[in-house]
Amino acid sequence: MFKILTLIFVIQIVYVSAFTLRMILTIKGQKYIAALISTAEVTIYVLGLNMVLSHLDQAASLAVYAIGYALGVLAGSWIEQKLALGYVTLKVISNNPEPRLAMVLRDAGYGVTTWLGSGRDGDRLVMEILTRRKNQKQLHDRIIELDPKAFVIFHEPSLIRGGFWAGAVK
């Protein structure tokens, strides 16, 4: 019975990880890759469910199935986080209206759009920057290094067209 419980556990982790990745890819517009993953996902699901239903008299099989599901969600989320699919847009508001920060970021290869804003205590430099999600932390750290008081907001765009990244973004 230990072998069957282990197999149910592993199948469930793989199934739910695939399910999580498929959902994220679907949301990000990667429908063909998501469809491919769903083919393997449904096969794994049917095999795992069949094993659980065949051993429904064993409470441990249902418990292992449920625990495997929870760990599959965590594993799928971890995998997606490591893949860091997609892009993020940062809106940065600096108390210093001088364009030095924008120029440093442009020199580092980032597309930066700037404009002057008006805050409670005076003029602000507002910047909008697009980057790959895998570069998000590096960019954020660089901004905070250059301007520790910068106000930074992250957005995940659903569609990107034209601009600085026109040839690089697919």
From TrEMBL:
Domain DUF2179: 110-162
Classification via Pfam families: DUF2179 (PF10035), DUF5698 (PF18955)
PANTHER family: UPF0316 PROTEIN YEBE (PTHR40060:SF1)
Name the record gives this protein: UPF0316 protein HH215_08815
Keyword terms of this UniProt record: Cell membrane, Membrane, Plasmid, Transmembrane, Transmembrane helix
Family assignment from sequence similarity: Belongs to the UPF0316 family.
Compartments it resides in: Cell membrane
One cellular component term from this protein's GO annotations in UniProt: plasma membrane
Transmembrane as UniProt keyword: yes
